[in-house]
C-alpha cells in the first residue's frame, strides 16, 4: 500500500508492503520497452522464429490500436492526488485503454495459442501462466496509479476482440512475405503512412514516438523475414512443425548458448540502433536546417517520425536477418 505524505508538488509516499511494491513494479516492466527488446529477440534467436513472428504481428496490431484509441478518446489518467503515480515519463499520455494490459494479454495468449499446436506441454499450465502474467501486469497498472480498473478492462477486452477477429487470418498473414517481390515496399510505406498521420494532439506527449517505434520495429521484422525467404538465408518458419513429443531438457550448455546468442544479438542491435539514429538525425537536421543541439526539434513531426521509423525498422531487420547470420558465422547454432 502506498500512502501519500506530501502532495504539494512532488508526491512522496511510504511503502508499507515491499512484497507488493516490488512485485507490481516488476510486473509493470513486462509491458515496457525493456521487456520487448529482450523477450521478443530472445524468442527469435533461441526458441522459434515462427513464434516470434506471430508475437510481433499481434503486438504491433494491438499497440497501434491502443495508442490511437488513447489519442482519440483522450480519457485522463487517474487524478493525482488521490493516487500516487509512480511512472512520470508517460504521465502526460491519456489513460483509456491501458496499452500495458493490451500488450501483456496479447503476448501471453498469442504465445499460448501458437505453441499449443507445436509443442507438447500441459495446456492447463500454459493457460494458467498466460492468465497469471496478464493479470499481474493489469494489477500493476492500478497499483502504480497509472490506470483505472476501467482502463485495464477496456484494454483486455479490446485485445481479446482483436485476437478473435484476426486469428483466422494468422496463417495467411504468415505467408504474405513470400507473396510478391513488392511486399517489402508495402510493409514500409503503409506503416510509415500510419505513423506520419497519427492523430494530432493538443500538446506533446511521447505517444506518437512510442507508436512509431513499435510499428517501425514490426515493419523491420516483416521485411527481415521477407529477406530471409527471398534470399534463402534461413529455413522457412511459416509451416507449423509437428508436435514435439518431448521438449529438450534445460541444460547448462543450453543456457550458456542461449545467453551467448542473446548477448551477441543485443550488442549488434544496440550498435545498429545508435548508428542509424545518429545518422538519420544528422540528415534530417541538415535537410530542415535545424540546430543540432535543439532538443525540441526531435519532437517535430517531420523529424520525429522519420528518424524513429528508420532507426527501428533497421533494428527489426537486423534482429531477424543480420543477427542470425552473425550467429552462424560465429558457430552458434
TrEMBL record:
Alphabetized UniProt keyword annotations: Membrane, Transmembrane, Transmembrane helix
Signal peptide boundaries: none
SUPFAM superfamilies given in the database record: Acid phosphatase/Vanadium-dependent haloperoxidase
Domain of life: Eukaryota
Segments crossing the lipid bilayer: 55-73, 94-113, 119-140, 152-170, 182-199, 211-234, 254-272, 309-327
GO cellular component, one term: endoplasmic reticulum membrane
InterPro entries: PAP2/HPO, PAP2/HPO_sf
GO biological process: sphingosine metabolic process
Domain Phosphatidic acid phosphatase type 2/haloperoxidase: 56-167
One of the record's GO molecular function terms: sphingosine-1-phosphate phosphatase activity
Protein name: Sphingosine-1-phosphate phosphatase 2
